Amino acid sequence: MSLSKLTNRLREHDWLAALIELVIVIAGILIALQVSNWNQDRQDRARAQDYYRRIHSDLGTDMRRVVSTRAFYRVVLNYQAQALANAERGELAQGSAWKTVLAWYQSSQIFPFELQDTSFTELRDAGQMSLIADESLRERLAGYYKISGSGITSNLLRHDPQYRVHVRGLTPSAVQDYIWTHCFVQLAEVDQKLVDCPSPIPEAEAGALLATYRGDATLLQELRYWHAWLGVSNLVLGGIDQGARKLTDDIDKARRR
Fold first, then answer.
1. Among 105, 84, 109, which residue's Cα sits nearest to residue 174?
2. 192 in helix, strand or coil?
3. Rounded distance between C-alpha atoms, residue 226 and residue 144, angstroms
4. How does DSSP assign 70-112, residue by residue?
5. Three-state DSSP class for residue 194
6. How many Å apart are CA 77 and CA 230, to the nearest integer?
7. CA gap 114, 102 in Å, rounded
């Protein structure tokens, strides 16, 4: 129904017909707005479902990385316990000077951990957080992904221990090259594994290297600090795993609504 017909009715003073025409025009506009709103809602629900799916997948990646990282750090913590036993009580790991040298060196290893936050960052930066209808879920997602920022939790997981620099500065290059070739395995893009390996040097030479480590009081202080820091980091990773699992369940519920 065109506005020109309504105009003609008014010119002819046909008020009833004009009223009917006006009602028809208004109804058409309202129906068009309703259809537009319905289409927008449908598109928003589709986008929300896509973000739910992607964030759910990202959380799954986080949980797998937590498992790998904690498993790696359990090995490092065990090496650190052996190195500390040597430093503080003179004990040799499995009665071997070489295995103890290896413990000192592998105690310096790190496994960088970062959240897979691509989907959430895209959602937030696009100003589309309202697509997640549950306000509580929005807040908890924002809190979870703060780990990627500069807060205390994220800082606990950014490892650059001075011990790592110090012990490597004391270890002969040939020994380090051997460790990286024979005592370390890159499993996948980010996964890595520390493995036992035979000694490349005589026990007497390994013993002399241990004496160098033990004779450096600063190195022991750094090892103690790194050991404590890594222990706390391992607990933090456990909390991240719990948070990711809870969010995964909540997103599953939101997707079914």
1. 105
2. strand
3. 25
4. HHHHHHHHHHHHHHHHHHHH-PPGGG-HHHHHHHHHHTT----
5. strand
6. 8
7. 27
Dihedral-angle region of residue 96 (phi above 0 means left; psi in -120 to 50 means alpha; beta otherwise): beta
Residues with Cβ within 8 Å of 100's Cβ and at least 6 positions away in sequence, in order, are 82, 83, 86, 92, 93, 206, 210
* Residue-by-residue pLDDT tens, the chain, 257 positions: 455 665 665 566 555 555 666 666 676 677 767 765 566 667 778 888 999 999 999 999 999 999 999 999 999 999 999 999 999 999 999 999 999 999 999 999 999 888 899 999 999 998 999 889 889 999 999 999 887 665 667 777 888 999 999 999 999 999 999 999 999 998 876 688 999 999 999 999 999 999 999 999 999 999 999 999 999 999 999 999 999 999 999 999 988 87
Domain ranges in the chain are 3-256
Cα–Cα distances (Å) from 113 to 11, 78, 155, 156, 252, in that order, read: 76, 20, 11, 10, 25
Whether the Cβ atoms of residue 101 and residue 155 lie closer than 8 Å to each other = no
What is the CB-side half-sphere exposure of residue 243 using CA atoms within 13 A? 21
